[in-house]
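Budget justification, computational time. The allocation requested in the original proposal was used primarily to generate structure tokens for proteins on the priority list. As evidence of use, we reproduce two of the resulting records. The first is shown immediately below.
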Amino acid sequence: MSDSIKDTSDPEVSPAERYERGVALKKAGLHKAAIDQFEMAAVDTSLAVKANAQIGLCYKLSGCYEEAIPAFQKALKSTPASSKETVQILYVLGRTLESLGRIAETLEAYRWIRREDPAYRDVAERIEQLSSRRPTVATKKN
């Protein structure tokens, strides 16, 4: 372990400090160490949303998309019913699900975003694109 993060179990280190350490480690590309810090920061309910979202981002940056999804979902459970933060987290979750080919879940996330913020990023185009290539069981009627 590096000197800058000695004794990660030190109770004297506040969750806010853990969060800041996690951000620094993530920026340095040390995703596993960052996740450890964010997990300790997440015990503070005021940091839970941000810390869990960061955990998801670290997993995603590491190419561990399946592990990122529960972290994003946990972050969403901690957010207010409708917030800018929720939309941002849902977007990253949607992009992660899309990377895994989980189209139905992706569309669900993107449609929720569209209801909250119709002009958010490229959500409308993504919904259109995914809807047109989504396999359908029944024949479409015009």
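The second record produced under the same allocation is shown here.
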Amino acid sequence: MKILIINLGIGLGSIGKIVESLYLEAVKSGYQCKIAYGRGTHGRVPKEDTYYIGSEFARYLHALFTRLFGSTSFYSRKSTRKLINWIEQYNPDVVSIHGVYGYYVNMPILYRYLSNNNKHVFLTLHSCWDFTGHCCHFTLNHCDKWKSDCIHCSHIDEYPRSLFFDNTKKNYRIKKELYNNLKNCTIICPSNWMAELAKESFLKNHPIITVYNGIDLSLFKPDFRGRERRRPLVLCVANVWTKWKGLDDIIELSRFADKKIDILVVGVKRKQIKSLPPNIIGIEKTSNTEELVKLYNQSTILFNPTYEDNYPTVNLEAIACHIPVVTYDTGGCIETIKDGKFGVVIKPKDYETLIKITLEVFNGQKVFDYSNIEEFSDRTMAQTYFNVFMRKN
């Protein structure tokens, strides 16, 4: 089986790490695999098994047109035609797409080619963007226009940001047409929550299955030497901190915490660090896995206050290090803690309960069971993907 994976990047960010893991496991399993990507480096994937889509200039131009005209993934025509020429030479049996947004590929050109050539397409929904006219997430905005027809979007200033025009209606109808015309397409969702949303969207005519995200358990593992702390530490980790990731909630938590707990936020920008209260320690995003594992192992709990998320790998990383997760019942977050086995679900802004749980864990009054975490491994995830690919073929 010849596999082609298409994604914005390789090895960086949660999706980039998933894509890299899929490649490595595919090669171990005896499959031929290549990755087409549009940003960054090729990570641990040999250069000869990658294809860099377009150029940095083309990506900036694509982003500029998105800002000006309110549409993304409808530019980069030349880059996409070159990509198609490369795909024809490789001639994959399976095309696994993990996101065409990110200013690097032309969605209509690519999808029409895949449909016309009857390629087996597996689309993984890492966000809701594929079935909306604009948004990657809509829960916080309490919007359900995507169920019928996206029009008059009041959040065009959110990623992928538009400065002037609201083209959500046009975007939505083009996406709907493209997906309805795609032959041999299977929708893969990293959570049951996302799968249920997909079944309410125009993707419902395609097979929809759940394949949970996975992480490298040889990297993320417990180190009890870092657990001897004088005070409990609440760790918060995100690739980018936005309002829907819950940074404001962490700031509110700091007012309740007083001197009872320490709070460490990883992934904040320099400007955000300057605005944090003095009792919150802020660290910029780190791509050093060893450093991140060390931070997990020094923590009492991971607090994930996200209001919109799919199946967050930060939760899995903490659990793999035997650190419990306290999270809101949003998106697929609750699915990561397996009915309370690996953490606790609290109501949004219930800081008193959060502090109580943190102190109980720190004092050994609350203990969690970390057996059977193999289901979180990237190998388990990859083998599930391959089984799905094989059934389609």
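A brief technical remark on that second record: The mean pLDDT is 92.
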